[in-house]
Amino acid sequence: MTEWLRGLPEPLWAVYEAGPPGFALARAAEAAGVTVQVVAPGKTPRAAADRVKTDRKDAELLARLLLAGRLTVVPVPPDWLEAVRHLARTREHARRDLARARHRVPKLLLLHGRVYEGATTWNREHRRRLAAQTFTHMSSPSHGHARS
Q1: Which residue has the higher pLDDT, 67 or 45?
Q2: Predicted local distance difference test score (pLDDT) of residue 105
Q3: pLDDT, tens digit, for every residue of 122-147?
Q4: How far is Cα 28 from Cα 14, in angstroms, rounded to an integer?
Q5: First-to-last C-alpha distance (Å) of the chain
Q6: What pLDDT does residue 141 have?
Q7: DSSP code of 121?
Q8: What is the model's pLDDT at position 139?
C-alpha cells in the first residue's frame, strides 16, 4: 500500500481525510518513511455549491488546501488507543441495540393484547414468561392497514 507513495518524487506531502479505515494508512506510511497527515473531514472547507463528490475532485481540493495551510490536522493516536476507542464504540452500539430490542418486545406483545404485570422486567420470571409466548400467526397484525 505504501510502495506507490515511496515511488513519488521528493519532497512529498501526503494527506487524507480521517474515516472508517482509521489511522492504519498513516501508520503504514510512517513505517515506510513517508509522512502522512490525517485531516478532519468535518473541518475541511468546501464550497456550498460543490455537491458532486469524486475521488479526483476530493484529492485536488485536499492538495490545494494543504498547500494553503487550511486543513485541520488530526493527531494519529497509538494503535492500542485506537483499538480501545473501537471497542468502546462497539460496546456502546451493542448496548443501544439491546435497549432498542428490549423496547420492541413489550410493544409487540401489546399489539397482541399481552401485558406483563410484574414489578420489574427482564428478570428470570419475565424471561420465563416471554419464552412461553406463542402466536397463532407468524406475522404481526396489520395495524389497520388495508391489504391488497
Answers
A1: 67
A2: 94
A3: 999 999 999 999 988 766 555 555 44
A4: 13
A5: 55
A6: 53
A7: S
A8: 61
Is the CB of residue 7 less than 8 Å from the CB of residue 36? no
**Entry pTM:** 0.63
**Which grid coordinates are listed for 81?**
488507543
Distance CA 138, CA 148 (A): 19
Residue listed under C-alpha cell 393484547: 113
The secondary structure of residue 129, as a DSSP letter, is H
Q: Which three cell numbers stand for residue 140?
A: 404481526
Spatial CB neighbours of 46, under 8 Å, sequence gap ≥ 6:
61
Cβ distance 61 to 34 under 8 Å?
no
Please tell me the predicted confidence (pLDDT) of residue 21. Answer: 77
Element (H, E) at 14: strand 14-17
User: Whole-angstrom Cα distance, residue 80 to residue 29?
Assistant: 18
List alpha helices for the chain, DSSP H. Answer: 3-6, 24-31, 55-68, 79-111, 124-131
* Cα dihedral 127, 131, 132, 134 sign: positive
Ranges of each domain in the chain: 3-74, 79-131
